[in-house]
Amino acid sequence: MSMDKEELCGSLLTWLQTFNVPPPCTSPQDLSSGLAVAFVLNQIDPSWFNEAWLQGISEDPGPNRRLKVSNLKAILQSLVEYSQDVLGHPILEQHLPDVSLIGEFSDPEELGKLLQLVLGCAISCEKKQEHIQRIMTLEESVQHVVMEAIQELMTKDTSDSLSPETYGNFDSQSRRYYFLSEEADEGDELRQRCLDLERQLVLLSEEKQSLAQENSVLRERVGRPEDEGASGLTAKKLLLLQTQLEQLQEENFRLESGREDERMRCVELEREVAELQQRNQALTSLAQEAQALKDEMDELRQSSERAGQLEATLNSCRRRLGELRELRRQVRQLEECNASHAERTRQLEEELRRAGSLRAQLEAQRRQVQELQGKRQEEAMKAEKWLFECRNLEEKYESVTKEKERLLAERDSLREANEELRCAQMQPRGLAQADPSLDPTSPAVGNLAAEILPAELRETLLRLQLENKRLCQQEAADRERQEELQRHLEEANRARHGLETQHRLNQQQLSELRAQVEDLQKALQEQGGKTEDSILLKKKLEEHLQKLHEADLELQRKREYIEELEPPNDSSTRRIEELQHSLQKKDEDLRAVEERYRRYVDRARTVIQTLEPKQQPPGGAPLDLHALRTQLRERDVRIRHLEMDFDKSRSQREQEEKLLISAWYNMGMALQQRAGEERAPAHAQSFLAQQRLATNARRGPLGRLATLNMRPADKH
């Protein structure tokens, strides 16, 4: 049977090595401390055998047998609780190992029982499939022994299970008490510590009883000596047990003294708690008294506030009574004044009847003045229009004279070019008459010209001519754009002049209205008194003042609008001048390029006419051709620079045109909106609003006629 247990222990050691725990587990001596078994249980179920439980196991007991046995007891107790509480399989007493033999002698039989319990926990936990797969990876012999151990563990009778009293009188809540939270108060901690000490005393007493039983058994064995070897072994074991008994007695005495100290401390703490409770009761009674006093203070404060409010109401009633007396006195004065005003009203009614005829005459004269003002405004608008058209004609005359001068200069240049071409045509004819062999149509002369004037030079000349034509076309397009911008500028100036004239007319109307207001104020001062007529005149005066204020606002808006329009016009004229200046520079550059081109052509002609193949040295013609090629390259570089500058200026002109178009569009929309607001009838039109509507109605047909008259002039 012992061999079977040793074989079981070896196979379970092989199975235990598959967990790869940090402590060694190759021999029974490695497992005597219980540390490797604790790490294996932590891997089997980390929720039950957690890190706190691992910290309760001594890591390095060394040769201390007592620490080893305590570790093994803690492991065995945890296994029993895990089987009962988690797995629901109580462990039989016959399956429980003797941990003292494991810790002292590393007994394989008892160690096999302990490992058999660990195996039962592994195959019954939540990760049982993983552990079963791990068992299947072992050798067949080891698998056979492990399976027999599982069957032996599962097929035994479970009726006589281990009760808590058979092992240390531990209940299932001992580990829970061991891991209590540290956040409780000091009294609870002391009580818990007392309970733990009592449990330790119970364990030590039970261990003492078991050791006493073992001692008695060993003494009986000593009484029945079998042989000398057995008697020596029992004697050694007896001595060892006696020493252990003495150590346990000392530890028991120490624990009892500690328990007494803790009891005394607990009594002191209970006494302090009673004192604190009495003090708390006294303080609560004082707090209740303070609260009652506070309530009385609040009531007194409310009553004082109410008394202040009543005093304030009494003062207000007294003040109102004085005001009532003053009002009665004022009523009597007003009644007397009303009687005098009634008499004055009757007198003013008679004067009003006399002033009725004068008012009709005043209205007729006012209408005549309005008609004369409208005619004067129309004449002023016509005068401004003719002045503006005169300025436009003068500007057109100046532009026409400039264009005429430019055409005359271009005509002179074309005449010079025509004469040069005629001279160039006459020279080959003279050569042909002097020597018939130099006829241009002859193949010899053609070969000579081809040799003297290479193909690259001819291609360069043709390319320069094409570029000259293209630049001329671009210049014409730029001039058209300049004319279009000039036309837009003229329209802007025309609109600005119209707004300025309207501004002047509004200022004149404003001065006239101010004069009317002054007249009305003088009339009021002459009349005097608070009559009905004076009230009407005051109303008229207020109306005129309101109209005057509206006219001021209108003039201010128009002045701001004119100021907004003037900067874009100034900037557009400045940009147009810059564009004209850049175009003049480009014209001058083009003329300079044409002059150089003509000089190069003349030089090439002279070289062709003067050189003779017989008299010319062999290296002369290539030198001249090289010089001509270098000059042509320089001219190409300059032309490229001019093209780049022209592209930059063209992009700048396009941007400026876009800005001008957007500005004109915004200005047109603003003017159109302003005109629509002025034409829209208001619910309560004032005198100035009616005058503006009348002037706009008269100005509308005149403005349309002026635009129709100016359109043919623009076309011409």
TrEMBL record:
SUPFAM superfamilies for this protein: Hook domain (SSF116907)
Entries under InterPro entries matching the protein: CH_dom, CH_dom_sf, Hook_C, HOOK_N
Coiled coil: 180-427, 475-603
Residue ranges of every copy of the Calponin-homology (CH) domain listed in the record: 6-122
Single GO MF descriptor: microtubule binding
GO cellular component terms given for this protein: centrosome; cytoplasm; microtubule
Similarity remark: Belongs to the hook family.
Name of the protein described by the UniProt record: Hook microtubule tethering protein 2
Organism: Bos mutus grunniens (Wild yak)
Gene from which this protein is expressed: HOOK2
